[in-house]
């Protein structure tokens, strides 16, 4: 029995092992034949395991002004990291990981603004945790080209850089609310406000990819089977904004904030013939390159409805003329008006009025009673509401910017119907006022405001979409518009006009209307009292007979001196921006200048030597900067025949360009120089140049990178404009 058992067991084991062997061999044969394990393609899996695949991020499109000046663009910065894994080094003579922690830390410290001990601790902890690589926090991110080059020059083993795109705004606080902001999400730049947000689908491109085979140390093989799918960069967006007019506006807003410390300032410049917004700005604003403590995220020009005050009388006047009930010589009693027995009385802004005056004088003096009687008695409340709606009040304009708010017509009770006539109760936005005013400036045709001039393909330059002028209504006739302009001109020219000697321009007639709007107190529901607790505004057009430019400016609660007119801040902005913009656009003057303004016409410079041009400029009293030692002129920053002021700096590039001493230069001036010479530019800080990386007198080419440090305010100019 035992013998029989002994003979059977070996046979049984042989059979079991044979079956197992056949199963294993069969499995290998199957795998070899099909290349699959449990439905997984092992060849494909192996290829994936030894293949690196990276996304090639698409470059975000650039936002330009109407003439091609970059306002928002992608900028490459660098992130520093340190490799700690010894296995990354394949040749001991060329180490690729950090060898000496203390030496590495000591050399990196001054470049990263960190203590050497902090860096050493990060490196040591990384080693102990057996990490492949480490970084050094925010100090090792967003390094500029100069910082990267300085660190690379240290030749430290194991120190590497990764390129990263950021959104960069060359002009800093410049139409910030309009241009908008971006955010980084999963290493992608996403538009979140302004044009950046509304045009995000165009500005954002389609990422590509690159794949290649590598070894276990992540090093590309000699025959890597590299596959590249090219990225499709985002489209470029061109705005209707004009960089020079926007700069005039920004500088004026900054000056008013510095001088009068207002709660809010808003201004818009438009072409009334097309609806194009040439400039738009607010204060408080922000620097998108360095946000800090942002006091106002909203674009008040389109998103902050308020009671506009007497600028609304423009449309009350135009409605009365159109309705045929306007008689400029008819008299009325100013001071106080009660529309009915149970209606609260309203008063003129001086409380007592000016006695019996004509309706023309009433408009010139900005009489609330004149406006109320025109709307409530002569036009009629129902008909006046029709005109308000025809002028677009109570509805969004549809401007191509996100965040627009409509405002509302408060018109339920007789007192509201009366106060709406002079801009109280009913709310509107600055952009609504501007749209409505295009009807007055443009022969009765009301134009929709727009800010996107065109969208172009970044690679081909082909136009994808183009902004067009759009007539959105005709609330008044051409004849009524002309009559309204004539009357509004007297607001500025008449000695009793509220704009007299305040909003007049040298060389140009102005038609416009002042506004002094009361501010509701959110706690009590009543209006604030006190001389400064108003929104002081002006809506003006020039030249008065046929306006080429139109501007609205409002200043909320400025701090005024006792002897200072309440219009001082708003008139400073209007006069400075409008007068210089009209000249810049070469719009013919239509009246004799009351004050001679020294304007220089840039002489012809082509085929002239440097010395010949500088002699001509010296004789004209111009301010200029010669870039280089050559006597052959390669480029000049302004065109021949262009009219400029003596303080505007002209840049003359010679055939031997060299870097000048930039101390005291504004960032904007350095940007002009960069655009002319084509070099790369990085900067830090705000204000004016105090330090430059390339010394004065050194040659510069398009391959060089200049880094400047900005700091502090420039010395006050001695020729500050005084209010009349």
From TrEMBL:
Q: Enumerate the GO terms in the molecular function aspect.
A: penicillin binding; serine-type D-Ala-D-Ala carboxypeptidase activity
Q: Which InterPro entries does the record associate with it? A: Beta-lactam/transpept, Beta-lactam/transpept-like, PASTA_dom, PBP_dimer, PBP_dimer_sf, PCN-bd_Tpept
Which Gene Ontology cellular component annotation is one that this UniProt entry carries? plasma membrane
Question: Which pathway does the UniProt entry assign to this protein?
Answer: Cell wall biogenesis; peptidoglycan biosynthesis
Origin, by domain of life? Bacteria
Extract the ranges annotated as region (Disordered). 705-724
UniProt cross-references to Gene3D superfamilies, sorted A to Z? 2.20.70.70, 3.30.70.2110, DD-peptidase/beta-lactamase superfamily, Penicillin-binding protein 2a (Domain 2)
Give every PASTA domain span: 655-712
- Primary location: membrane
Report the family membership.
Belongs to the transpeptidase family.
- For this entry, the protein name equals serine-type D-Ala-D-Ala carboxypeptidase
Species in which this protein is naturally found: Gracilibacillus dipsosauri
